[in-house]
Structures are given as structure tokens and as C-alpha cells.
Write a structure and sequence with these properties.
By secondary structure, the chain is an all-alpha fold. The chain contains six helices and no strands.
């Protein structure tokens, strides 16, 4: 919701943590493109959340286990493409607050740990 309605926020992974966000908004050449990308990401996140909610509410046990496994794999892709980019931006001083890439790293590890723990508990307890 933050990306859709409050993209200038630094809360909830709003794009205001990226300093170039404000430069892009002022440049008509980039403003629509950057706005499109932000809303595209928001839409993808919304699809994930709504689909996961439906699976958890209506899915059978096998579907729920599969969903958790797929969530672990899809979230882990952050380390393949996104983390190197945000780490580079952070090192160049283009992210506020400084060190945000470490915060995001910790949050992503937390999600993976949470979903992995749920699978371990299901299979071994």
C-alpha cells in the first residue's frame, strides 16, 4: 500500500530511501517511467500477498507447503540481483539512511528464516 499511495515514504520499503527518486520525479523525461516501475513493483507485491492469503485460507496442506517452499525460493532471489544493486547504491551514498542495504538484508534473511522454520516445524514436529 505504501508504494501505491505513499511512495515518498521511507517506511515499509517506500522508494524515498533512494535519493535519485526525488531527482527522477523532477525530470519529466524520467518521472513517468520511474512512476510506472514503482507501481509495477507495487502490483507484483500485491499479487504475492493476495495469492498467499488465498492459499493460506483455502489451500489444502500440500498447496500450503508448496507455497512456503516457493516463497523461500522467490524471496531468496533478492540476493541474486537486488542486494548487489542496493549495496552499491548504499556505498555511493544514494540511499538514505546510510546502511539501509544492511537493514534490508536482515529483513530478507528474517523472512527466509521464518518460512524455513515453518517448513522445519511442519516436517519434524
Amino acid at each position: 500500500m505504501i508504494l501505491y499511495f505513499f511512495p515518498d515514504s521511507k517506511l515499509g520499503n517506500g522508494v524515498a530511501v533512494f535519493n535519485p527518486w526525488f531527482h527522477a520525479k523532477k525530470d519529466p523525461h524520467f518521472a513517468l517511467f520511474v512512476s510506472y516501475l514503482v507501481n509495477w513493483v507495487a502490483g507484483c507485491k500485491l499479487i504475492f500477498i493476495v495469492l498467499l492469503t488465498v492459499i493460506l485460507a483455502l489451500g489444502n496442506q500440500a498447496t500450503k507447503i508448496g507455497a512456503v517452499a516457493v516463497m523461500i525460493l522467490s524471496i531468496a532471489t533478492y540476493f541474486w540481483r537486488l542486494h548487489p544493486i542496493i549495496k552499491a547504491l548504499d556505498n555511493r551514498g544514494e540511499v538514505t539512511p546510510k546502511g539501509y542495504s544492511k537493514t534490508l538484508f536482515t529483513m530478507i534473511i528474517g523472512f527466509i528464516t521464518l518460512f524455513s522454520s515453518a517448513l522445519l516445524v511442519y516436517f519434524f514436529l
